[in-house]
């Protein structure tokens, strides 16, 4: 065609969802000759948007994809109702007729609603579109209970949305466990523990019998086949999808026995001018509901439309998935179930931490076939990359990230981004050909990491490996909004007198930040004593628990943890704690950290409780913060016949010195009065053990899933030498550690390890010891109790309400039962 000529081919796309959007964008990028004029017809009143993140619409997120440019006409609010294959035209619900040379059906799917009695009652919804969410939100106003039918991916997202609207929520799943298509029984059971821990009832393995109406004719209850009933004023169906294949049926195109437009490997129907992609397409006998396969189909059709006799085919899909459901990491990859005959399963379960991991390997334990991760999916990207290949280490090492690939060792054909079908070789080629040096550049060039984002850590490792191999310095940027590491940002904030995230991102970054850099900067500002954490912009940056200066518990209540330095407490203060717990009906427990925790406080009760505790001389124990938690101790030489130093006095001195010290991760400590080690000091971030001549200092230990014994740093220290070493250790850690990095992993990451640390904070190799000392003295001098300051500020107190529009109304979903003479959260079980 000449420069002024028009496209000579007409493409009509029926449907405007994610697959349709990807097709159009792929075609526009590749159609450099301007061959096609494109018309997209979508029945929703808005253009395509990200359905994967649908729930975030209720949080105000903008889900819209970028608008198409060029020769693309987008028609919204109309549905294609008929196809005339002979005339090659389509007709819409508004009577519009459009001709085509090629037609792509991308009509998606419709929610499956089981044929149960009451399905048409007011208050019953499906969970599929933004309009559905808006309708649910509007109807839910003033309601107290809700239920979701379906325990798969969308069902759990819907349950999260219902709970987020303030309703007491439950999930009904006919299968024996949650997410049965992605998780095995063990993974489903662990996920259930997490979901129930958030105050949500879960009913599995029981079919639904009917929906029952209340006196007003609207839905009020979900009746199950076993005779039990769930109270629900809002019911949402998310029990699977059915392909939207009515257009194909209407024009005589073949469809599958259970639905879906039959297409070949090129996504072409029986009619050579008609194609089908996405959730409406039946390819290779399967209908795919994940975004990755749908995008791959779009790419195939784009290639075929532009290449006469093109060879692109849809070769199936990697159904691996990683997501965060209501704060719980969940992932499955490869074949997460039994695998072929002779396959072996390697399983790890930690019910206390809420972690379940299972790898399926070949009978010789050399080849990874698949797996399931619940509660800790940090190793997902690496494990998924090795599916079908030889494991680089023992399965148990892979399970805990003990053999972490650098990215450069992965075979080129390894699919890194399953959403966009990007291989390791594709990323390497893009880095080389386009001289890419950062993750945003790789994303723009390859689309890897632009959908669900779970592959981004592995993308970065590949990028780092390629840059290192080329002799290029590897970026340590904390995220795409800052070209700096956390340690570098710390120095920028400290040296540049930066007092807010907005100032920092405007002067040294780009964009508006993300869930990586915003909390990291919040921690930096808090560590540098930038005022109260609920002051102004800082309040919006904090982690969840900091918002109410309390730890959120499983049923929506909070814990109250006053500081008890060294575990030492007077009878008068014990009486106050007892009276507060009694008057507010709280559950009380003495913890392993030698404190007394009180559980079950509603958010509006927190200021009342803390007012009484503060008046009695208590202060915040910072159980909610990335800060010093406790300094545990034995009674030491004061009482114990084996004690050689006053461990209790030292523990109290250390706790009062470091209280409120904000850090990249929580900090724990202990002081033992002799080598018998009753306080378990060698499992703490910094631990102290008394000797006849002073104190031995141990650093960088921790418990948890991957325990680490602390290293002996110095021996026979005086009191002042001990405190100086701890001061410098903590300040150096706070300045140089990554976000959420424990002292144990931080020390292991230091080049030179313990010897280097000793050179820095004892020998002053870097010349910064005086600065570290001064920083700690500033912290000690500036300390102020967060709860006392909050009680003195009416503006801060306004946040402590369950419902903004009804400040004095308690959350009606919170309920308890009595066990061993104390309250415990009432399971959200079915009622009579």
Which key terms come to mind for this protein?
alpha/beta, single chain, 832 residues, 38 strands, 5-stranded parallel β-sheet, 21% strand
Largest sheet: 5 strands, parallel
- Find the structural class using helix and strand composition: alpha/beta
Which segments are poorly predicted (pLDDT under 50) over 5 or more consecutive residues?
402-406, 828-832
Mean pLDDT: 87
Task: Outline the secondary-structure elements.
Blueprint: E1 9-14, H1 18-30, E2 36-42, E3 72-76, E4 80-84, E5 89-92, E6 97-99, E7 102-105, E8 109-111, E9 124-126, H2 130-140, E10 145-149, H3 153-164, E11 168-173, H4 185-197, E12 201-204, E13 208-213, E14 219-224, E15 229-231, E16 234-237, E17 241-243, H5 246-250, E18 261-263, E19 274-276, E20 281-283, H6 291-306, E21 321-325, E22 328-334, E23 344-350, E24 355-361, E25 368-374, H7 380-385, H8 395-399, E26 415-417, E27 422-423, H9 424-434, H10 439-446, H11 456-469, H12 486-495, H13 501-508, H14 517-527, H15 538-541, E28 551-552, E29 558-560, H16 571-584, E30 587-590, E31 596-601, H17 606-615, E32 628-633, H18 647-658, E33 667-672, E34 686-691, E35 694-699, E36 711-717, H19 719-736, H20 743-749, H21 753-761, H22 769-782, H23 786-791, H24 794-797, E37 816-819, E38 822-825
Parallel strand pairs: 1-2, 1-7, 2-3, 7-19, 9-16, 10-11, 10-16, 11-12, 18-20, 32-33, 33-34
Antiparallel strand pairs: 4-5, 5-6, 8-17, 13-14, 14-15, 21-22, 22-25, 23-24, 24-25, 26-27, 28-29, 29-31, 30-31, 34-35, 35-36, 37-38
Helix pairs in contact: 1-6, 9-11, 12-14, 19-22
């Amino acid at each position: 065609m000449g420069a002024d000529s028009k496209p000579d081919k007409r493409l009509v796309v029926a449907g405007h969802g994610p697959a349709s959007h990807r097709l159009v964008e792929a075609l526009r990028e590749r159609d450099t000759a301007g061959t096609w004029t494109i018309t997209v017809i979508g029945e929703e009143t808005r253009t395509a948007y990200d359905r994967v993140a649908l729930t975030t619409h209720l949080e105000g997120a903008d889900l819209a994809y970028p608008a198409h440019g060029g020769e693309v006409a987008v028609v919204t609010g109309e549905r294609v109702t008929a196809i005339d294959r002979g005339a090659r035209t389509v007709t819409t619900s508004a009577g519009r007729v459009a001709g085509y040379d090629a037609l792509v059906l991308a009509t998606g799917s419709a929610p499956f609603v089981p044929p149960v009695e009451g399905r048409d009652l007011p208050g019953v919804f499906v969970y599929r579109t933004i309009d559905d969410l808006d309708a649910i939100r509007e109807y839910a106003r003033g309601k107290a209970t809700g239920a979701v039918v379906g325990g798969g991916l969308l069902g759990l997202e819907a349950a999260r949305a219902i709970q987020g609207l303030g309703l007491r929520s439950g999930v009904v799943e006919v299968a024996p466990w949650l997410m049965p298509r992605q998780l095995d029984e063990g993974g489903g059971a662990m996920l259930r523990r997490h979901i129930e821990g958030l105050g949500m009832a879960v009913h599995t393995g029981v079919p639904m019998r009917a929906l029952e109406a209340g006196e007003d004719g609207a839905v009020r209850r979900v009746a199950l086949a076993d005779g039990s009933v769930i109270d629900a004023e809002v019911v949402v169906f998310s029990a699977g999808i059915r392909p939207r294949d009515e257009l194909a049926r209407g024009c005589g195109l073949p469809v599958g026995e259970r639905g879906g437009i039959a297409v070949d490997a090129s996504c072409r129907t029986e009619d050579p001018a008609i194609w089908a992609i996405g959730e409406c397409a039946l390819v290779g006998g399967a209908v795919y509901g994940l975004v990755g396969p749908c995008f791959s189909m779009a790419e195939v059709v784009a290639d075929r439309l532009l290449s006469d006799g093109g060879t692109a085919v849809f070769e199936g899909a990697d159904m691996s998935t990683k997501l965060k459901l209501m704060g719980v990491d969940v992932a499955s990859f490869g074949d997460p179930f039994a695998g072929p005959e002779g396959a072996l399963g390697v399983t790890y379960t930690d019910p206390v931490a809420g972690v379940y991991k299972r790898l399926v390997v070949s009978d010789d334990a050399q080849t990874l076939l698949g797996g399931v991760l619940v509660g800790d999916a940090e190793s997902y990207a690496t494990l998924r990359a090795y599916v079908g290949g030889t494991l680089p280490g023992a399965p148990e090492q892979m399970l805990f990230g003990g053999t972490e690939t650098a990215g450069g060792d992965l075979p080129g054909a390894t699919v890194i981004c399953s959403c966009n079908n990007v291989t390791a070789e594709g990323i390497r080629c893009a880095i080389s050909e386009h001289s890419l040096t950062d993750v945003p550049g790789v994303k723009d060039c390859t689309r890897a990491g632009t959908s669900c984002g779970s592959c981004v850590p592995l993308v970065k490792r590949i990028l780092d490996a390629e840059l290192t191999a080329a002799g290029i310095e590897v970026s340590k940027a904390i995220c795409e909004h800052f070209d700096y590491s956390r340690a570098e940002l710390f120095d920028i904030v400290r040296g540049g007198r930066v007092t807010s995230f907005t100032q920092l991102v405007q002067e040294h970054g780009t964009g508006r930040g993300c869930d990586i850099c915003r909390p990291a900067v919040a921690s930096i500002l808090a560590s540098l004593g930038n005022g109260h954490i609920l002051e102004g912009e800082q309040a919006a940056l904090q982690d969840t628990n900091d918002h109410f200066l309390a730890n959120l518990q499983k049923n929506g209540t909070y814990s109250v943890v006053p500081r008890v330095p060294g575990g030492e407490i007077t009878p008068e203060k014990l009486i106050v704690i007892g009276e507060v717990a009694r008057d507010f009906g709280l559950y009380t427990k003495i913890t392993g950290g030698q404190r007394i925790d009180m559980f079950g406080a509603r958010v509006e009760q927190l200021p009342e409780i803390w007012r009484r505790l503060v008046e009695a001389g208590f202060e915040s124990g910072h159980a909610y913060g990335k800060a010093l938690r406790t300094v545990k101790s034995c009674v030491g030489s004061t009482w114990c016949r084996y004690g050689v130093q006053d461990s209790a006095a030292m523990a109290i001195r250390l706790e009062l010195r470091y209280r409120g010290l904000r850090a990249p991760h929580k900090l724990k400590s202990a002081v033992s009065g002799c080598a018998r080690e009753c306080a378990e000091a060698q499992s703490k971030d910094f631990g102290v053990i008394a000797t006849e001549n002073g104190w031995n200092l141990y650093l960088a230990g921790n418990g948890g899933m991957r325990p680490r014994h602390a290293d002996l740093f110095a021996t026979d220290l005086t009191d002042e030498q001990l405190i100086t070493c701890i001061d410098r250790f903590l300040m150096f850690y706070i300045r140089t550690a990554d976000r959420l990095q424990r002292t144990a992993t931080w020390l292991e990451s230091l080049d030179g390890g313990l010897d280097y640390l000793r050179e820095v904070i004892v020998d002053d190799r870097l010349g910064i010891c005086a600065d570290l000392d001064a920083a700690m003295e500033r912290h000690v001098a500036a300390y102020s109790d967060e709860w006392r300051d909050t009680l003195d500020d009416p503006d801060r107190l306004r946040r402590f309400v369950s419902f903004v529009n009804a400040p004095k109304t308690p959350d009606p979903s919170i309920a308890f039962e009595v066990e061993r003479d104390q309250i415990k959260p009432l399971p959200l079980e079915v009622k009579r």
